[in-house]
Amino acid sequence: MSSINKVTVLGSGVMGHGIAQIAAIAGYDIALRDIEKSFLDKAMDKIKWSLAKMVEKKKLTQTDADRVLSRIIPMTDLQQALKDTDLLIEAVPEDMDLKKKVYHELNKYADSKTVYASNTSTLPITEIGALTDRPERFVGVHFFNPPQLMQLVEVIPGGKTDQSIIDLAINFIVHIGKQPVLCRKDVAGFIVNRIFIPLVHEAIYCKDRDGASMTQIDSAVKFKMAFPMGIFELADFTGIDIIHKATTEMYLRDKKVVNPHPMIKKLFEEGDLGQKSGKGFYEYKGNDYERINLTEDQAQTYNPIKLIAVAANHAAWIISNGVCDIQDLELSLKLGMGLKSGLFKTIDNFGIENIIKNLEHLQQSYGSFYEPEKYLLEYKSK
Ligand SMILES: NC(=O)c1ccc[n+]([C@@H]2O[C@H](COP(=O)([O-])OP(=O)(O)OC[C@H]3O[C@@H](n4cnc5c(N)ncnc54)[C@H](O)[C@@H]3O)[C@@H](O)[C@H]2O)c1
Questions:
Q1: Domains in the chain, ordered, with CATH?
Q2: Is pTM, for the whole model, over 0.85?
Q3: Distance (Å) from CA 31 to ligand 1 centroid
């Protein structure tokens, strides 16, 4: 990428330090900017730890790791961080008021050549773009956590983004060894969260409505829907704070995208944030990552048809609204959520007629959130 040499990453938290690391591995010079030196020190420690692991696993030589580290310059001075930058990746907390403040500050110091990219998970790209003095040179690049390991990056143009900037973002992502998927429309939840977040809520409704246990539902999700783990387990792994934040933002944008169950807000308010706090849906004893014991036998005791139906309906919405095509949707679910086989294969296994029938029953009992998408009715007649 001849046009990008220096990259500035704003925010050195969970996402920012990981993005800085992978871009430095790809050879870019990085300015990593945060508001306090102590945050940067922590971020640099994490990067050092991760590079040492890569050396241990022979993915990098020690000389390469040293070179990578020397390319990342931590700093608190914004003006210095923005000097000569070709690409700015913003990874500050998911709060529109804070993002407003940050972009107003950027407008004062950034070169006119600098392209802006936001790693927001749920905020509207067009709205953030409008805060900048360059909405045509602004694009969403949604990395997944942890960026060092997750292959997928959703690229989301805002209403005014130039095609050349979309191309530049896609090329950059390929260059840093990730898989870009173009999310053609700036819709709530983009692609992956538009399927994942509503499923977490639906799983709680299934627990209430069907009287099933969490491990029954999770076993069925894992073994019958080809998920890498159960849905409650995945929510705990992701973090209930992240799920709660995404739910709130997505629901604010589009009431049809998620049917919020009050349990998420309750867990969040009680500080039960999942793996990281020791308790979420499940309890966790140690500091190490713990898996929930899910079995094929338990999977046989629960039919996850309602979960499949809700996932199918959202997938149908995404495709019929031109957000992406079926291949990119499957690729996103595989790389962003770890699905072991295609969602539409699961849909076919369970039968589209069965799925539509379940959505119609749910619609009659619980309202229009479950109204089957036209695309599913057409899929049925294919
Ligand atoms: N955590 C995830 O799982 C995840 C996944 C995908 C995308 N995202 C998105 O990435 C963004 C960052 O999330 P995170 O989880 O890394 O947050 P975080 O809270 O871990 O890190 C944010 C960092 O930004 C810093 N910061 C605050 N104001 C700043 C400023 N003016 N300039 C520079 N740095 C500033 C904070 O001090 C903090 O270190 C959010 O938009 C979030 O939605 C998060």
A1: 6-182 (3.40.50.720), 192-380 (1.10.1040.50)
A2: yes
A3: 16
